[in-house]
Amino acid sequence: MIELRDLLPEDEERLFLWRSEPEVARWMSDAEVSDREAHRAWFDQLASDPDMRGWMIQRGGRPSGLLTLTGLTGHHRRAGWNWFVGDSDARGRGVGRAAQVLGLDRAFGDLKLHKVWAEVMADNDAALKVMTGAGFQREGYLRGHVLKDAAPRDVVMLGILSEEWAELAPTARRGLSQAGLIAA
């Protein structure tokens, strides 16, 4: 079963290790995570800043990844969406797909957002497939938008509105529940 849970202080070290792995780091548009103190500060902010929310993605009770929303306090009722599956054993097992559904339920249900948006590296085919499969729509293409390893990288802008999710959610939840990935 895949679930989201609130972050715990002991998650910081695991997240640092995951975010330092080349397979995870290559898709992140933020700065490199080589400095431990900077990572602790980022984690502390994620845990305490009302503008941000973070959840540990769990598979079978085992931490498997991270999902975050940022920009929550603005009056537009929208937030930036970031996620990754850090546990290599959990990749390719529906964890990302389930995390999209569980996270969008929280964003549009619990947090009452109107829109969730994301920037995804243009060559991150797996993330683009999972997110568009969950209902995110392509809203733009930004050439040379981020620097990664000193090279410009293109980014795809994605977004989903609350009314779109309301229409898609029942089918998405049912499919994941029938596959045994999330609770009914």
From TrEMBL:
Per UniProt, residues of the N-acetyltransferase domain are 2-162
Give this protein's Gene Ontology molecular function annotations: acyltransferase activity, transferring groups other than amino-acyl groups
- Specify whether Transferase is a keyword of the entry: yes
Please name the Pfam families in this protein's record.
Acetyltransf_3
> Which keywords does the record carry?
Transferase
The cross-references to InterPro entries, in alphabetical order and at most eight, read:
Acyl_CoA_acyltransferase, GNAT_dom, PseH
**What's the name of the protein?**
UDP-4-amino-4, 6-dideoxy-N-acetyl-beta-L-altrosamine N-acetyltransferase
Which species is this UniProt entry from?
A: Caulobacter mirabilis
**Which gene name belongs to this protein?**
pseH
